[in-house]
Every structure is written in structure tokens, then in C-alpha cells.
Amino acid sequence: MSTPPADNYQLSFALCLIFTLLVPFAIAGLALINTGLGRSRSAAHAMASSLCVIGTAVVVFFIWGFAVEGTPLHSERFGGVSVNVGAGNAGLFLRHLPDYASALVFMLAAFSVGLSALIPLGATADRWRLGAACASTAVFAGWTHPIFARVSWTIALAVLPFHTGLGSNVLDAGGSGTINATGGLTALALAWLIGARRGKYSANGMPAAIPAHNAVFVLFGCMLAWVGWLGLNSAGAMLYAEMPLEHSVLVAINTTFSAAAAGLTAAAVTRIRFRRPDASLIANGWMAGLVASSAGCATLKPATAILTGLVAGALVVFSVEFFEFSLKVDDPCGSISVHAVCGIWGLLAAGIFAGEPGQFMAQLVGVATLLGFVFPMTYGLNWLLNKFIPYRVSSDGERQGLDLHELGADAYPEFVVHADEFMQR
Questions:
Q1: DSSP 8-class letter at 202
Q2: pTM higher than 0.70 for the full model?
Q3: Which CATH number fits domain 6-413: 1.10.287.3510, 1.10.3430.10, 3.30.450.20, 3.40.50.720?
Q4: Where are the beta strands (DSSP E) in 56-123?
Q5: Cα–Cα distance between 111 and 109 in angstroms, integer?
Q6: In degrees rounded to 5, what are phi and psi of residue 348?
Q7: CA distance 323 to 196
Q8: Which terminal residue of the chain has fewer beta carbons within 10 Å of its beta carbon, N or C?
Q9: Over 80: is that where the pLDDT of 398 sits?
Q10: Can you name the residues that pair with 83 across neighbouring β-strands?
């Protein structure tokens, strides 16, 4: 095969770099959503935790996480251009990183693990200690996330009785599974381990409504996340799905259509069920559409992207209610429903709409790996770590608010931010 002109590769590399640099907008958006949906007396703690968790995730991933994960690139096509890039183990501290294309893979992967590490903060808002969050993130970025990413790249359909033209690996270009479902299942494990916020459930088990303290943060965070997801899905499609450069337009369309359809569906469902649209659930619907679009962003058609979003928007509303009322899981930000449930739906949707039974079977293997391997592993690791580093803040610290208890200052010192929901117990 003839070598393509160098300027084609350089153009693909430059555009992929730009897409990758948009991913921090998704990180900022998710941090704002987590902060806005929590209590006002823990707002500064939520943002400070986001910065510390991102820093921990990126540093640990640099030291050994990427060595565990490796890079999926070999002699393949990058942005539609045939290139020969490095593959395999980059070593500790990236000592053996072979080329700039592999460095770009590391950059996207580091941003991705930072984004994924933020997801559990939403499910444990108002009660997770900062030091414990950083320790748990070190385990997540150094082991849980890299292990599933490596496994998902090497789940070959050779173990199944047929092959598919779409490839031998799990189809997950933008990270519905590797980023969102791993983070969401870790959030579920932590929410179970830490327990509900005091005052959330009454003696008869009925949940009390604790509304978002700043809906503007939440909705603006969705807009930032949209920008970041356009970059995340486009860069992932170029690096992991061998998407030609010009197909980035299709990725942007699919991502936007899925988010829009999911947000509108969540608005309609809440309007029907509660007689008024719910702002926080509309935000969760929008995010669910982004999450669900990621796996098949490079292969979906606009119509199937809309259908993926429609299902995600309805699914997240009912999932939030199921976890809160039936399983008694206190998830202030709906992180489990948005990222775990809709991330799994995104993996399945990519297989369903691929039109190949072999690809759908590969997606099922990926989902089974998440539920049967990743979730028990992340639960067990955090259960063990909790024995040495207590995760939950003290009762007095939770009553006082994490801003004062752990940081020594309120986010909003000029306002009264303490409520009387603790009187319920």
C-alpha cells in the first residue's frame, strides 16, 4: 500500500488534537452539574474535589495506568490515512512512548479517565471525604478503568462462532462503556458503600426531596458538556474507530441529535408524569443522550442517533426513580442512571443499529464484562479501601456542610446555607 502524502496525516493529527483539547469542556460541565445538584453548603467542596480527583486521575494514569491500559493502535488508519504507529505497553511514566500518535492516544485517554473519575462524585455528593475520594480515584485510574479499556479492545469475536465486518472488538469509539459505564458502576458501588445522606429517607423508607441548589449551574454545565462531547466522540472515532477525517461532521450530528432527542424526551416524560417539566431531569436527559451516543457515534445514522437519544431520555427518568424509590440508593446527581444505565444502553444501541449479529454479540460481551467483572471488582476494591480510609464524613461534618468541615469556609458565606432536614431523624 502506498504511503499517503504527509500533509494528509498532519491535517488529521491537527484536527484530532483540536478535538481532544475540547474534552476538558466536558469535564468542566460535569463538575458544574455535580456542584449544582448538591447542597449549597458543600458547593466549594464539590468543585475542589473535582480538581483534586482530576489531578489524581491524570497523575496516576501517567505513572502506571496507561502502562496497564496500553494503546489499541497498530498499523492502521488514523483519520482515514494509513499510518504505522506505536502499540502496546508505553511503560511506567511513559518511558517507552514510541511516537506522537501514541502520545495523542495518551492525551485523550488521560482526559477520559479524568472525566470518568468525576462521575462517582455526583452519586456521593455531600458525604464523601476529599482524601478518601482521591484514594479511591487512584485505584480507579490505575486499575479499574485501564483494565476494562484493555479488555474491551481485546474482546475478539474469535471466541464466538462468527465474525463481523465492523471489527473484532467492542464498538465504543467515544466511551459509553470505557468512560461512562465504568464510572457509573463505580458510582453505584460507592453509593451503596457510603449510604444515603442523613435526612434523605424517613423512618418508613420514603425519600425526601432535596432539590438542586443551583439549577443554572446544572443547565450551563450541560451546554459545556455538549461542546466537550463533540470533541470526545470525534477524537475517539478518529483514534479508535479509524474514522475518515471528513466523517467528523457525522459524529457531531449524531452526538447533537442524540442529546437533543434525549433532553426533549425527558422534558415530555416529566411533563406527563409530574404535570411540569423538571429542570434537573431535563439536564440528566441531555447528558444521557450524550452518553448513549458515544459508543456508536461513528457508525450510527442520524435517524438511529435520534432513536438512541429518545430511549435514553425516557430511560434516565424511570431509572432515577427506580434507584431512589426501589433500591434506596441516594444518588443526588443521577450519575448512576445517566452514566451506567445509559452507557450500557449506548453499547447495546451501537450493536443493535450496526445491523450485524456478530457486532451485537460483541457488545453483549462488553456489557457482561462490565456487570460481571468490573462492578464486583470496583465494589471489592472500594470496600477494602474503606476499611483503611473511612469514606464517609462524620455526622456532624455532614450537618455542618463539607465546605466548613473540610475546607474551613463556605462557598456562599453571605447566605444562610444550613437547612433543617436533619430534624427528620
A1: -
A2: yes
A3: 1.10.3430.10
A4: 75-78, 81-84
A5: 5
A6: -65, -40
A7: 12
A8: N
A9: yes
A10: 76
